[in-house]
Amino acid sequence: MLVRSFESATKGMLSLIESLDNTAMNLANVNTTGYKKTELTFKNIYDAKVVENTGTVLCGNTRNIGTLSMGPKTDLIHYDFAPGAMQETGNPLDLAIEGDGFFKVQSQSGDVSYTRNGQFILDSGSFLRTTEGDAVLDTQDRPIQIDFREIGFDDIKKITIGQKGNIEINDKDRKFTLEQQIAVYDFQNKETGIFNIGSSKFISRDNDTNPPILAEKFTIQQGMLEMSNSNVIKEMINTINVTRNYESLQKHVKTSGDMLSQAIGVGRLKA
């Protein structure tokens, strides 16, 4: 039983380390635009059967007492897609999604991903891009180009982006509507069917079983950014709880070690 106790406590300590790492990542991204916090779920590695010997050596009978966990391990990583706080910026190229969905972006190498980070810029060719250089795509999977200077406008603030992603350039007596519309996609299974590849960008784990689909229940808010949904106070409380549990397991390992040393010492004396 002492050996099992060591093993169970060790697995528990390793799981707590993973939980603490996850909390540290959430804390590190409290100011990251569009970040969605992660949560870990654990499961037992194995439940050992515990029995009591009720007979003699020659005629042994046992009675089932119950089970003993041999320690936990990480089962799943869940993403919490609860909305983050909206922060007003006044920049017409800053966009926040209220409701479901992600902006569809494409890297310079052609890789497509999905993000809630709507902090966009216009490059020298008037293409709408993320701050990392990824192209923002429209509903036809084309890079969006807003060449407002070519049609006689000189102020970026005259660009209006509607709640469904339609793009207009407005003046007092002039209005141009672009044919392109900003795409907003969603996934049927967001919690476990997609994963973060960094920089608040997600891709599907399996496009066949969880493909991106055009979102319906959303509105785009211009001049706003969605901030991280990671809560500093909750994450700090979680850190304290995990640390206390880790210290308890440390004491348990030390106590079990002392008992094992005593048992070994008694065995040597009898020998």
Blueprint (SSEs and pairs):
Elements lengths: L1 H27 L9 E7 L2 E7 L8 E8 L2 E8 L6 E3 L6 E5 L2 E5 L5 E4 L4 E3 L5 E3 L4 E2 L22 E3 L4 E5 L4 E7 L2 E3 L7 E5 L2 E4 L8 E2 L3 E5 L1 E3 L5 H39 L1
Antiparallel strand pairs: 1-4, 2-3, 5-20, 6-19, 7-8, 7-11, 7-15, 8-17, 9-10, 12-13, 13-14, 15-18, 16-17
Describe the protein's architecture and organization:
The chain has 271 residues and is of the alpha+beta class. It folds into two domains: 2-80 and 231-270, no CATH class; 86-226, no CATH class. Helices cover 24% and strands 34% of the residues. It has helices at residues 2-28, 232-270, and strands at residues 38-44, 47-53, 62-69, 72-79, 86-88, 95-99, 102-106, 112-115, 120-122, 128-130, 135-136, 159-161, 166-170, 175-181, 184-186, 194-198, 201-204, 213-214, 218-222, 224-226. Strands 7, 8, 11, 15, 16, 17 and 18 form a seven-stranded antiparallel beta sheet that branches. A three-stranded antiparallel beta sheet has the order 12-13-14, with no helix packed on it. Strand 9 and strand 10 (128-130) form a beta hairpin. Helix 1 (2-28) runs antiparallel to helix 2 (232-270). The mean pLDDT is 85.
